[in-house]
Write a structure and sequence with these properties.
The protein is of the alpha/beta class. It contains 22 helices and 18 strands. 49% of the residues are buried. The structure holds alpha-D-glucopyranose.
Length: 476
């Protein structure tokens, strides 16, 4: 079966978040499981010479975006058995940031047109186009439209995956014809209409043959207004074609036994390297060298839905505990400022790093003891899985994929792989942090939990098969 996987970011070429990790690792797993997968993404300025030197120029053509006729060059590159296509248009994609431009609608409308228009020009026909998030939401819609004229497109099935329902691609009504080149009925029949505007995500929910999201619990949560940001009605109406499939992580990339970013590699059977990573992390961050104080880490975009207001609310009570606290991430000013201020107060025990660095992130996953992720909502979350793979026990709020991957330690049965609370409440979180910190003193139990987490299966094997199952049902 041929699968074309479309995403607006793909690791290791270009990454701002978890979407890139998934788009970088799921296609490889699908390919290993026996399908033929090709991935298509924009050729951003941020994709460096290292990758560009390996690309082959295939062809160029002009994409029709409403009344515009716009250049498109197609490049390709092969890596780990997967073919990657890069859509080249410097005007749209040679910019510093991936998102956040005044013309994002036009940029990703163009990308979706380019994907649909390049298909008949390839020497390969996909059975399924798998789209991800609002940036690719127009693809199922364009395939329906163009399929009326081009029979080969009409036979292609579509899957649309929601990685985060909060970002929907909402634009003014007037953009439907003039910018996206779609007939008025996409608005009039309600498929793309949203509060008098148009919503690309809503259109994809209606037009795609199947919808997935990135954990079973989030699929349930999406029926409720608290989580679905206005999409609850249309998603409930389409529940028959909605399924939650838990993300995996790339266990070859995230592997403490081989990770070149670590000060010392280690395994579940020999954890001595983890202590060394902790010591080097403390040294690198200017914390006191205290092997027996648990380090609680938080690596996150510093935005409200990550639950950081819970942390800032009880930060001073947290710091009364015998812990060190490490934050890494950029985001909203009030959170950055709260952590930077706290650093002044606890210079030897708190480290606030308001930036993003993937090598420091890996050193933190390896050197910390606990990983805090109190998200208000979390479609899947990958960090908690990465932390567990590195023997760092998660403290999470039970929502979305956090609920599906972390089960709280039960002192009576010994079951569980981390710590969890369910209500969005700072003192509930604090209570669980206290429990975790006191359990840390019991080295024997702690070791068992570390080993349990490091030996758990966070690979794509099971979930890739679930996707394959969906593809084959659609194609039959
Ligand atoms: C988004 C979600 C995150 C998920 C990731 C990959 O970034 O917020 O929870 O893990 O997509 O699907």
């Amino acid at each position: 079966m041929n699968i074309l996987f479309a995403a607006s970011e793909v690791a290791p070429f270009v990454k701002t978040g978890g979407l890139a990790d998934v788009a970088g690792s799921l296609p490889k797993a699908l390919q290993r499981a026996g399908s033929n997968v090709r991935v298509i993404l924009p050729l951003y300025g941020a994709i460096g010479a290292h990758w560009r030197n390996q690309m082959t120029f295939l062809f160029h053509f002009n994409v029709t975006l409403a009344w515009r006729s716009v250049y498109c060059g197609l490049f390709s590159l092969e890596k780990d058995g997967v073919t990657y296509y890069f859509v080249d248009n410097e005007h749209y994609f040679n910019r510093n940031e991936l998102y956040g431009h005044y013309d994002d609608g036009e940029r990703f409308g163009y990308f979706c047109r380019a994907v649909v228009e390049c298909i008949p020009k390839l020497d390969w026909v996909p059975d399924v186009v798998h789209c991800n998030d609002w940036q690719t939401a127009l693809i199922p819609i364009y395939l329906k439209e163009d399929g009326n004229r081009i029979p080969m497109l009409a036979s292609i099935r579509t899957v649309f995956t929601i990685h985060n329902v909060e970002y929907q691609g909402r634009y003014g009504r007037e953009t439907l014809e003039d910018l996206f080149g779609l007939p008025a009925y996409w608005y009039e029949n309600g498929a793309m209409e949203y509060c008098g505007d148009i919503s690309l995500m809503k259109g994809a929910i209606c037009a795609a043959d199947f919808i997935t999201t990135v954990s079973p619990t989030y699929a349930q949560e999406l029926h409720y207004a608290f989580y679905a940001h206005g999409m609850e009605g249309i998603l409930s109406g389409n529940a028959h074609k909605l399924q939650g499939i838990l993300n995996g992580i790339d266990i070859d990339v995230y592997n403490p036994a081989t990770d070149p970013a670590l000060f010392q590699t280690y395994t579940a059977d020999d954890l001595s390297g983890k202590a060394r990573n902790k010591q080097e992390l403390q040294r690198a961050l200017g914390l006191n060298l205290e092997p027996d104080l648990p380090i609680i880490a938080c690596i996150s975009r510093l935005v409200p839905h990550k639950g950081l207001d819970l942390v800032t609310t009880v930060l001073s009570q947290m710091m009364e505990l015998p812990i060190q606290f490490v934050v890494l991430g950029r985001g909203d000013w009030q959170f950055e400022q709260a952590f930077v201020n706290a650093r002044q107060q606890y210079p030897s025990r708190l480290s606030a790093n308001t930036m993003y660095s993937s090598s420091l992130a890996m050193n933190i996953y390896a050197g910390a003891d606990l990983f805090l992720m109190p998200s208000k909502s979390e479609p899947c979350g990958l960090s908690q899985m990465i932390a567990m793979r590195y023997g760092t026990l998660p403290i999470v709020r039970q929502t979305g994929g956090l609920k599906d991957t972390v089960s709280p330690y039960n002192q009576y049965t010994g079951e569980g792989n981390g710590f969890a609370f369910s209500d969005y409440n700072a003192h509930d979180m604090l209570h669980v942090i206290r429990e975790a910190v006191s359990l840390y003193q019991n080295r024997e139990i702690w070791h068992t939990l570390m080993q349990r987490d490091m030996n758990a299966d966070f690979s794509w094997n099971k979930s890739a098969n679930e996707y394959l199952h969906i593809y084959s049902r659609l194609v039959q």
